[in-house]
Design a protein that fits this description.
The complex is a heterodimer of chains A (290) and B (155).
Chain A (H helix, E strand, L loop, with lengths): L7 E3 L4 H10 L4 E4 L5 H6 L7 E4 L9 E4 L2 E5 L4 H6 L1 H6 L1 H8 L4 H4 L4 H7 L6 H7 L3 E6 L2 E6 H4 E3 L2 E2 L6 E8 L5 E8 L10 E8 L4 E6 L6 E2 L1 H7 L6 H14 L10 H23 L6
Parallel strand pairs in A: 1-3, 2-3
Antiparallel strand pairs in A: 4-5, 5-10, 6-7, 6-10, 8-9, 11-12, 12-13, 13-14
Chain B lengths: L2 E6 L2 E6 L6 H8 L18 E4 L2 E4 L12 E3 L1 H4 L6 H8 L9 H14 L5 H8 L10 H11 L6
Parallel strand pairs in B: 1-5
Antiparallel strand pairs in B: 1-2, 3-4, 3-5
Helix pairs in contact in B: 3-6
Bound molecules: FE2/S2 (inorganic) cluster (FES) (2 copies).
The site of one FE2/S2 (inorganic) cluster has 10 residues of chain B, from loops.
Chain lengths: 290, 155
């Protein structure tokens, strides 16, 4: 299917150039990285742009690196890059796990994590991992830079906190100082090439503090503060898990859609929560996955 | 009309395109490369897969202008001189019926075997999970990839 609307294509070599292009085309420009979402939107005529700014020529945006006590993931880093990174695999296993569940190889070779959070669909696989790491989104415009906590980033389905003259340059993740373990559990109809029907990220610290985040069970991916509050300070036992499952229901508002029913999602989220929590605890204790 | 240059199946090609032209359409309609197929046109089926700098990508989700100065390989390049061992394995296993999915599957499996010459059955399944086939039920496809993997590298 051809794309009907015409636009001018730019491939800047520096971020400054890109930011100037963006400001010169006031609200009429789109940023292109992997293109796996935006090209479909062009085909379906869901966006209109006079200028398409391809940021893949800006080398600094392809970096995965540690800067002091933070991990930086650039806007052009693909899910395949993340999966192939030893650093990610060893030090940020939940990002690695979540990346492996995105689409299929052909999509992961192109799709970027930053693109995933910019598309901001409720089922964004990257979201729970970034939420439990309390990641920051780095935005730049011509005049400067600002950091938005990931928990404030998602505003509504497909809507984020970005301004028209801004580019997301990357994501920053503080490396937790305390000992911790985490995991991402995803429910989909089959492995590969499917959107999450429900996703849950769990991070547990050695001293019994927990961070829990969901995707695809509400309009936007979010943390679960009530659930965390209930669990914090507690050692995980079967009665605690049963109690927590009840609280969990207050945190989610799943819908019935083409992928599954509300009832099924609720049922599965409870199971995934239990499975995930047990997995995390056993990882924390240095054992194999429960 | 912008002009792009890229390496297509080992040959340098130059083509005039519009900025909004999709790679799949340019390959098929302007360059006569007919192996990539249009199935879903939105990234779900894998029929349009090509190798971009050695990695499988969906040519229906890429603007042709993005591949300026890059390297594209399609089936025409993989079997330039003779069928690859992987292609031969697909024939041995009678893996396809209508064949519409075949180019995409061969591209995806070629990338897999280049990266991981001896994948497990699970790895083959996971890698091919983004390639839909309406005819065969997948088993002879998976068998063929495993058979080819016993012979090592595929180009
Ligand atoms: S036609 Fe490109 S993925 Fe289906
Ligand atoms: S053989 Fe017909 S679609 Fe696969």
């Amino acid at each position: 299917m051809p794309v009907i609307q015409g636009f001018e294509y730019f491939k800047p070599k520096t971020l400054n150039e890109a930011l100037h292009l963006l400001s010169n085309n006031r609200g009429q420009a789109s940023i292109l990285a992997g293109g796996t979402d935006i090209v479909v939107q062009f085909k379906e005529d869901l966006i209109t742009s006079k200028a398409l700014i391809d940021i893949k020529g800006i080398t600094e945006l392809s970096k995965i690196e540690i800067k002091e006590d933070k991990l930086f993931i650039g806007a052009c880093v693909t899910f395949t890059d993340l999966i192939e990174s030893e650093l990610i695999k060893n030090k940020f296993p939940i990002i690695w796990e979540a990346s492996k569940t995105v689409g299929s190889v052909g999509i992961r070779n192109r799709a970027t994590m930053v693109g995933n959070i910019c598309s901001a669909v409720p089922s964004a696989d990257s979201a729970p991992a970034l939420l439990v790491y309390e990641a920051l989104v780095i935005l730049k415009n011509k005049d400067g830079e600002r950091l938005v906590p990931i928990s404030d980033w998602f505003i509504a389905p497909k809507k984020t906190g970005i301004q028209k003259d801004e580019i997301v340059v990357g994501i920053l993740i503080h490396i937790p100082k305390k000992k911790y373990a985490c995991c991402y559990e995803k429910l989909s109809r089959y492995e590969g090439e499917d959107l999450a029907q429900a996703g849950i990220g769990i991070l547990a610290f050695e001293d019994h503090y927990y961070r829990i985040a969901f995707c695809a069970v509400g309009p936007i991916p979010t943390r679960a503060p009530k659930l965390e509050q209930f669990l914090n300070g507690k050692k995980i036992t079967s009665p605690i898990i049963e109690e927590a499952k009840k609280i969990l229901l207050e945190e989610i508002t799943p819908i019935t859609d083409i992928r599954s029913s509300r009832k099924y999602r609720i049922h599965m989220v409870k199971l995934m929560f239990e499975r995930g929590l047990k997995k995390v605890i056993s990882r924390l204790e240095g054992g194999k996955d429960a | 009309m912008p002009e792009i240059q890229f390496t297509l199946n080992g040959e340098r090609r130059t083509v005039n395109i519009e900025a909004n032209d999709i790679l799949l359409d340019v390959l098929r309609d302007k360059l006569g490369i007919k192996s990539p197929k249009c199935g879903c046109d939105r990234g779900d089926c894998g029929a349009c897969a090509v190798l971009l700098n050695g990695k499988s990508v969906r040519s229906c989700l890429i603007f042709a202008i993005e591949v300026n100065e890059q390297e594209i390989t399609t089936l025409e390049g993989i079997s330039k001189n003779e069928l690859s061992p992987l292609q031969q394995a697909f024939i041995n296993n009678n893996s396809f019926q209508c064949g519409y999915c075949a180019p995409g599957i061969i591209i995806t499996a070629t990338e897999l075997l280049n990266k991981n010459p001896h994948p497990t059955r699970e790895e083959v399944k996971e890698n091919l999970s983004g390639n839909l086939c309406r005819c065969t039920g997948y088993i002879p496809i998976i068998e063929a990839v495993l058979e080819a993997s016993k012979r090592g590298k595929n180009e």
